[in-house]
Amino acid sequence: MNNPSFWQRRVGLNLQLGYKDKMDTNYLSRMIEDDLDTDEFFIQKAIGWALRDFSKTNPKWVADFIDNHNLSKLAVREGSKYLS
Hints:
By secondary structure, the chain is an all-alpha fold. It is built from 5 helices and no strands. 60% of the residues lie in helices and 0% in strands.
């Protein structure tokens, strides 16, 4: 993590899509937390996509993660799209 290339960090986040019940939530958390302060649009969008995708499998975990972290508005909007 903490790769200086935001494109590689974005790819790492996007590679989390589709893991469903095999998702390593500790790994996903660390990846997102490493970029909480990043204002890079593509990173924030990828964070939201990863959360949105995982919310289909574990909406409670995603809702709790969003509630307990200071995410960007973009990440929250994307990540909470399927939450009730």
